[in-house]
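Figure 6 in text form: structure in, sequence out.
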């Protein structure tokens, strides 16, 4: 398993699917750096995500997010937790296609609903207390998440999910 064969690991999935928690565990286990595109955007812009959405709108956020992904993919292989909507921009798929193993943290909406109740730092959930709009968004995005190279059941504990991701990464690194 030579290092030249290793590619990045990009975790994709809906808000609340555990990309950050699982990503940190996976990075630790693989001895790789961890990058969260949301945090990278906040550092680049110097504002938090709700403020970016409020002042500049979603389209501007998406452009920053693409820039953050590009930065993350430039360095040596790392584990990338992507924002839930990163999959909606085709250019992001083009960038990830050759350089990252994409892993969908797949989880049913009812679990997500429980996890997202009371979340205050996600602008797309503002004014949606019953998460009805979030549910529609989840359904519209599911076909995009399905495009991932591998799917992992994210309805288990983070450590179990992380172990499953690590297994798929090892298979990927052996195959490339
Ligand atoms: C978004 C998900 C968020 C963040 C932003 C938009 C989305 O990330 O990028 O609020 O469009 O689903 P998480 O998936 O990490 O919550």
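Output sequence:
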């Amino acid at each position: 398993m030579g290092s030249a064969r290793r590619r990045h690991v990009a975790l994709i999935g809906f808000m609340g699917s555990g990309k950050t928690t699982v990503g940190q565990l996976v990075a630790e286990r693989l001895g790789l750096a961890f990058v969260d595109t949301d945090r990278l955007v906040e550092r680049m812009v110097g504002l938090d995500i709700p403020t970016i959405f409020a002042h500049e709108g979603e389209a501007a956020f998406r452009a920053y997010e693409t820039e953050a992904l590009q930065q993350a993919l430039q360095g040596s292989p790392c584990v990338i937790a992507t924002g839930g909507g990163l999959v909606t921009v085709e250019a992001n798929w083009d960038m990830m296609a050759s350089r990252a193993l994409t892993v969908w943290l797949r989880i049913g909406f009812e679990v997500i609903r429980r996890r997202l109740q009371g979340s205050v730092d996600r602008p797309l959930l503002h004014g949606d207390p019953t998460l009805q709009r979030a549910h529609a968004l989840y359904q519209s995005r599911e076909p995009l998440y399905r495009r991932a190279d591998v799917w992992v059941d994210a309805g288990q504990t983070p450590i179990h999910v992380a172990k499953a991701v690590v297994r798929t990464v090892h298979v990927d690194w052996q195959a490339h």
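Caption detail: Helices lie at 19-30, 37-45, 49-74, 90-99, 109-116, 132-145, 158-175.
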